[in-house]
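Recap from last week: sequence in, structure out.
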Amino acid sequence: MTKHTPAFRPLLLALAVAAAPAASAQQSAPVPGKDAGTQPPPPTSTEGEGRLGSLVCAREEGKGYNLLITSKSQVRCVFADKQGAEQWYLGETGVGIGVDLKWNKAQKIRYGILSSTTTFTPEGDFLNGKYGGAKAEVAAGVGLGAGVLLGGSNDTFSLQPSLETSKGVGVAAGVSYLNLDSDPLSLARVATPTGGVASQALYSGYFNQGLTYYRSALYSGSDRFSGKAVDAAAAKTVRPEDLPEGVPDEDAAALAESRKRLVAALNEPLSFEAPADLAIAQVNFDCWAWGLANEAPKVQVNGCRNAHLNAIGHVEAAVAEARVRRDRLARLLQPRWFTVYFGTDRHELEPFAQKAIADAVASLGDLEDARVFIGGNTDRTGTSAYNAELSEKRALAVRAALVAAGVPEAWLTLGSYGDTNPARIGANPHDAFNRRVDITIQPVTVKQEALASG
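Predicted structure tokens:
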């Protein structure tokens, strides 16, 4: 009969002398869902093994059920490579009845992860897959080969267990299989934010809160906030948590008031002047609300509440300041008008005309760019042709004065209307209000210091 050898042959961490007899006495259990005939026998040599890091698994309380001879449990596992970088996995284990009673939430199983090739480089959630091996309900100190699991992609990996706690006995050896898939936290970690600054800040906040819950073994909170992180990364609208039921009246009232403030900030476009604070306010409100509803540790709940109140205060202050700047900008961008008057049949600038030009120049001081229209006019004395020429001379005189005062020529546009554009219409052809040049300033951009000054 031909013996099947896979492309990658897992190497077990074992003691050549002490563990080999125990390993040979055990029968390898097939990986669930795999053909038992294709699983290789466990080798006893450690030459060429590729050590990748460790996988630490904790039993998730209340997640699992009992069968006739085994107990299925949901576990949360963290892989750490040699540099300390982490990956998170959601798993299912099969544990022998009786053995499962010895595995309490204070105990964790640490697996040493070995690869059958020294050239393997961990990428993505590379441990996803099914693992199975010899099921030996023996004390943890019987031998390093006890409880080893084989599997992963092309049976590339071996998992050598040991209990992290000093008093745990037999749990690691009682694990008959382990199925691993990406934890929601891992899915959140690899999400790529596609939105603007606000979405990216929200993604980062939700991911970090999910990680905090994970490390506190509050896995349902980690799953929820990891999902919010994924949605934020995709630039989806992520609304604040609804108000929870069944919390004390004092907490309910404070939450309701804070949610009202948060929703108002989210609906205010000027809030995105402070996107990081807005994200902190929303993430920590959700943490506060979820923590009260799910009886999270009080220190975490209070920390989220305080962080939310601090951040929403910053957002509201930023909105108030932005409104001041917006209103001032609106005023500064309004058109401005100045009038320069002339004597009868004259185009030279009189002393009183110099004052109007100085005022026009001063009004340009808060602008980065502007369009200045200069329009010359006359009364109805004289012929239309003469008045057209006179109005042009008046406009040119004002233009020269503005350029001399430092106004960029590129800003200036000239026009002359003769007697066709009177300021006042009446019987008097010599009306002084019609002997004028109108200066119309249309602001384009405003200097930043002008916005900050008021």
